[in-house]
Amino acid sequence: MKKRSGLVTVGAAIGLVALMPLFSLGCGPGSQAQAPAIPRLQGTPYPNMSGVWQALNEANWDLEAHTARTARVLHAGVPSGSPVPDAPVLALGATGGIPGSLGVVVGGTIPYKPEALAKKKDNFEHSLARDPEVKCLLPGVPRAAYMPYPFQITQSNTKVMMAYGFSNAGRTIHLDQVDDPGIESWMGHSLGKWEGDTLVVTVTNLNDQTWFDRAGNHHSANMKVTERYKMTSPNHILYEATIDDPAVFTQPWTIRMPLYKRLEENAQVFEYRCVEMVEELIYGHLRKEQLVKHWEDDYGRRGGTLVVDITRKATKTED
How is the chain split among helix, strand and coil, in percent rounded to 5? Predict the structure, then answer.
């Protein structure tokens, strides 16, 4: 009995020690933890979202839930076997794979019309060649918010500026009265208003050249996006975007995810000047003599020597 009593005493002591941090934080019985106050724009009741933010998820790979995939370009593999990475990404090994994800689509599935779903599947089969991100084209809305790069919000009483590192993209959310430009563009025309602590943004005049992700999810030029930015703490924004495009989807649908504030000292958005990075890909076929045509390296006994030869020829389709 003494031994048993000693064990109970030790167990109780361990439990008390484990609870001590909660009491010190004001989480014990009879207390209420005080959440940090959301910063407010000076002279207004509205949240101040100014800062550097970033999504930490796999949405840029595929908005819908998916398992990990071998690569975005696949070879059929052996009969009755799994597909294997195809030539363009074979040399990348594990770094060319696609991570799995729970997805960010509310309800789980994008409600495509049958013909639009067929186009999405075809886009996925050819995503390396067709994805606008590969060619450093502007990402559009909402994709700019969840690409794997930080972006900066600068806020005033009448404007909210969004500066994205990828391809030097940016846009202005107008909280005041402005004229509709009446022309389609990659980043569209953004009008905002406050509904309590939520910034609601209506984005129109988007062209049909952008994708939602690397999986080939697409839209038409008739798409309207309604974004909602709600600060839930000084360091978190709950981001939602509702897609309304009757030409492609059977009904409006929504994505939802948290955005996280970058807290390191002097956080900033560095330019990702990808235009220079894709010049050879986009214009290399115009050279009088082909420049990039052969690559090889020795992976050792785990891979052997891999040799890649490249041939450029005229396109079969219009861009």
Answer: 20, 30, 50
Two structure tokens written together for 112: 């495509």
Sequence-distant (6+) residues with CB within 8 A of 226 are 200, 201, 202, 203, 241, 242, 244
Which 3 state secondary structure label does DSSP give 50? coil
Residue 210: closest CA among 162, 260, 147: 147
- Tokens encoding 152: 């900066």
CB 210 within 8 A of CB 143: yes
Lowest-pLDDT range of 26-30, 164-168, 196-200, 261-265: 26-30
C-alpha 33/C-alpha 197 separation (Å) is 21
Are the CB atoms for 165 and 148 separated by under 8 Å? no
- For 124-158, the pLDDT digits (tens) are 999 999 999 999 999 999 999 999 999 999 999 99
Kind and range of the H or E run holding 256: strand 253-261
Kindly tell me if the per-residue pLDDT of 37 is higher than 60: yes
DSSP string, 183-225: S-BSS-EEEEEEETTEEEEEEE-B-S---SSTT-----TT-EE
Contact 237, 53 (CB under 8 A): yes
pTM: 0.87
Distance of CA 137 to the CA centre of its chain: 15
**Whole-number Å distance between alpha carbons of 268 and 153:** 11
Determine the 3-state secondary structure of 93 from DSSP: helix
Task: Give yes or no for a contact between 84 and 75, defined as CB atoms under 8 angstroms apart.
Answer: yes
CATH code of domain 51-57+105-274: 2.40.128.20
* CA nearest neighbour of 230 among 53, 43, 33, 32: 53
Residue 44 is given by DSSP the state S
The H or E element spanning position 154 is strand 151-155
CB neighbourhood size of 2 (10 A): 6
Task: Give the sign of the dihedral formed by CA 84, CA 90, CA 94, CA 96.
Answer: negative
| Secondary element (H or E) of residue 298 | strand 294-298
In the chain, where are the structural domains located? 51-57+105-274
